[in-house]
Amino acid sequence: MTDITPSSFVRKDLLAERPAPVRTTGLIGLMRTRLFNSPTNILLTILGALLLWFTIVPSVKFLMVDAVWSGQDRTACLTENAGFAVGACWPYIQAKLPQLIYGFYPEAERWRVNLTFVLAAVLLVPLLIPRLPAKGISASLFFVAFPVVAFFLLYGGGIKGFGINWTAGLLQLFDESILSAGQALLGLSKTSAIAPLLWVVGSLIVLVGEVISWLIFPFIWLRDHIQGMGQPVWADFAVTAAIVCLTAFVLGGGVGAGGRALASSIATFTAIAIVIRLMGLDRGGLAVVATNLWGGLLVTLVVSVTGIVTSLPIGIALALGRRSTIPLIRIFSIAFIEFWRGVPLITVLFFATYMLPLFLPGNFTVDGLVRALIGIALFTGAYQAENVRGGLAAIPRGQSEAAAALGLSWWKTTSLIVLPQALRHVIPNLVNSFISLFKDTSLVSIVALFDLLGSLRASFSDPKWSTQSTAFTGFAFAGIIYFIFCFGMSRYSLFVEHRLNAHRRS
Prior knowledge:
This protein is mostly helical. The protein has 19 helices and two strands. It is globular.
């Protein structure tokens, strides 16, 4: 029998070395695993590299290497006056930059535009940084106080009626329009072949107008008493602030959430009051600058920001209305969404600008920019409604049933449980619509509103800067501006989406 010793289990020869593992990280790993790991990927990589070479390199050469950076007129950007190939004419952008930002806004009043931009940035930053406190007050200042301040900064003028006065006048005008339409139908019924039908319809419209007259009587009475006071502006302001603060407190649920809503409302009205006093809006205010003088980046930001801010609430309301169990609300929401989604934005802008005044009473006019803003808000709101409806459909039915079992009302279930989850699901779709809207603002130039691209095209007519590279330089500059804003919205949406979905990461 062979003796077994411990040395019999010990290997005396070393194993052969294994090949080094294939590197899968870094640039070399990317090239090995993604770019050159198959004949097809090798071909696509070569084609992509050639495409980048023939697009990015000439662009950089035109915009940076061969560009002209200084000059007083077109002669600096002409080829025959240079010993090299002339690229972008940046002196043209420097000369036309005020026009591209402000349009035809008076130069002496442009500080108001700058102040509006600064206020917007200062109020928006606290909302975009998640860790900063007092989001309710910041939101109230940005979404409620800032639009009022921005309007009087950009447009000018003074305050004749802050809330009750303006609301009562609008309701009275609406009521008078309904009554006049009913009276017109009653007048036609005397000579028309369908007199009975016109008489019935006219009588119903007049009856509706009379009912509205009784409903709005408290507003009219309150407005008349406010105007009889010594300080109608501040009396109107105080009454409006009291009504809004009380409403916010009640809708907020009383003590607790209602107290926070009350604090936000008080802070908002306090900020507005300070601005009214500092700007002298109760004594005539700033000089009026008509909207037909606005232009450039100012109009682009006003149209896009207004459309983005107003379209989301409209879309949420329509999405909830489309899921409503009340037939009238559901049918109205469906009809509204399908109508606005079935027409192009150009048609909406033409109708809002040129056709809408024909349907308004003779003593009521709406500014051209405001008409475009209303059309864009309604148009974009219809698309946002479908985005939000998709998010609502993704929420399991058990969420609502669990909330009902806990005794929550429909409003609290929707606002606290269902809607936040739905909006989190559709963040990419919402931001995609926002980016599309920001770029579609260039369409307002067809209705005589000079946005960034409209002001750019208007600057091309200046013979002082007429060169072969002027148009290319201008459109490249506008493209860079659009890319910065759109890319910023895209990256921030990814940040928000990543943060809200942190609980799902393993």
